[in-house]
Amino acid sequence: xxxxxxxxxxxxxxxxxxxxxxxxxxxxxxxxxxxxxxxxxxxxxxxxxxxxxxxxxxxxxxxxxxxxxxxxxxxxxxxxxxxxxxxxxxxxxxxxxxxxxxxxxxxxxxxxxxxxxxxxxxxxxxxxxxxxxxxxxxxxxxxxxxxxxxxxxxxxxxxxxxxxxxxxxxxxxxxxxxxxxxxxxxxxxxxxxxxxxxxxxxxxxxxxxxxxxxxxxxxxxxxxxxxxxxxxxxxxxxxxxxxxxxxxxxxxxxxxxxxxxxxxxxxxxxxxxxxxxxxxxxxxxxxxxxxxxxxxxxxxxxxxxxxxxxxxxxxxxxxxxxxxxxxxxxxxxxxxxxxxxxxxxxxxxxxxxxxxxxxxxxxxxxxxxxxxxxxxxxxxxxxxxxxxxxxxxxxxxxxxxxxxxxxxxxxxxxxxxxxxxxxxxxxxxxxxxxxxxxxxxxxxxxxxxxxxxxxxxxxxxxxxxxxxxxxxxxxxxxxxxxxxxxxxxxxxxxxxxxxxxxxxxxxxxxxxxxxxxxxxxxxxxxxxxxxxxxxxxxxxxxxxxxxxxxxxxxxxxxxxxxxxxxxxxxxxxxxxxxxxxxxxxxxxxxxxxxxxxxxxxxxxxxxxxxxxxxxxxxxxxxxxxxxxxxxxxxxxxxxxxxxxxxxxxxxxxxxxxxxxxxxxxxxxxxxxxxxxxxxxxxxxxxxxxxxxxxxxxxxxxxxxxxxxxxxxxxxxxxxxxxxxxxxxxx
Length: 730
Hints:
The chain is an alpha+beta fold. The protein contains 31 helices and 23 strands.
């Protein structure tokens, strides 16, 4: 109702209904005056949801203007990232695009603010008569739950064990409720073979045989008059006297005991023509006993349904929708997050790497883990040359975010045009004469190679220069135009004492000093305002996590924490670009999500049978939520304290953490799992993929690996006995 489209259609309908009278019938009313009067009428009518013009306008928008089912399907697939949108730049608009531009100039539209489950629940909560007036028919195809419909069909047909016949009286009630049934159909609805019960009912004249089926004696006259079946003699007169509208009674009972059905299905079961069945259904519809509309999810034609059955369907579907609205548990979120970040997506090539880095930019990841675990998990057949190509082209910039030991540290990757918005302020700068000399050289001369840095440092000890250089790197002050220095140990080579020969190249420096080094500070110019930086950071968090929680933001170490981005997230919600709600249980109410991520998150409630049995992720991988957004589950012994340490791995099965491999691979901590073979086989698969070089497991929980409960599963998966434990080698 807030769109100009709705307003214009409402104005036309109100004018057609003579609700906008003219002051002078012989003259035209100015358009601005029509709009004003229509707006006033719409404001008053909005307080009366059943106002006919409102209903007609809504029906016209849904039916005559839009193909909503197809639009919803496409947009849902786009937002859930099942369908990719590829932008293409052309010199001029296509004829189709030109017609759209011409037709929708100055027309703005807003999508529903609620996620799919909430919208379906709200639609099911509408009054059925109002929905029929709104759409012209019962169009519940997109709202009714197919599983609920299948379960209700089984209940109505007495095919669930709790409704099976247990004795002869139950069998008689079964025949009276469902109509004629064959012997096989009766066996499927009884706790035991019904032969003796049928003989007893037949002797008592409570059941009769009609053809190859059995029916209750009360249906004798109705079956004779409506279908022309021969009935046995000797029945009481009350069962043989003619009844009014016999076929209507049989059709009504069929509708009462079936989910939505077509005319052909009912006619085939009753043994009459489709024309007679349709006539009976039309009469029952006039009596208000059945309804005609679109009910079956995925159906292609209109169906019929008993009014009472439809009420039960709507009530149960609404209950199922409300269950979907409930927040998902931790394991569901742990299944969703790797899929949202493209882990195991099968993408490959430079475009796949670019899409991957768009999500990961700004998050601190250990350099030793980035190319060994994080990127290969998202890009099939990943090669370091792909990242080198982006760095050499100036598209990607890496910045240090703290050292981890002597040869490792955390790095953040950024697209060059986003670094000034996403990069946090530099920490405490390292102090020293060599550090100051290197800063001065890079500030005055710009990007420099290793020999130039050594000369500027004023010392011949390359180890001192290399150490000072990497102090600046891990402090986030200096970067390199290649990723190569991060792949090698941080050691300086010994200077050669041999006399250089004529024509010989100048001696190369250490591999950790290769490439061109430059200051990071110029990339932050012009400095963004605090609002711009918070806005960019909030959008990046939504893009990376799908569902942003307080704990998730805290785990990334963003300056200011959740409070720094909360105002922006709230503004994004007010603008309709984000959703706020309770999406993940145990994470507080202040949760924000992209519109498509909410619908996709809820699809992970059920475990995908085609998904891999287990997934091995680096403990520090942003797609691994335990220890960050989610707390670690209790270990088998209750004593272990897992951590998101570089070099450690976590094995996930259906979103649950089942094993944690400590850095170095000497100890495995297990969580609740009945089959250690799952995580053992997952580790072997990761080893074959090249993500894990070798494993020498010495202990599983608090037991020696060779005598632990998981020893047999490890050996069966491919581990061999070693000197201290069970070893997995190439």
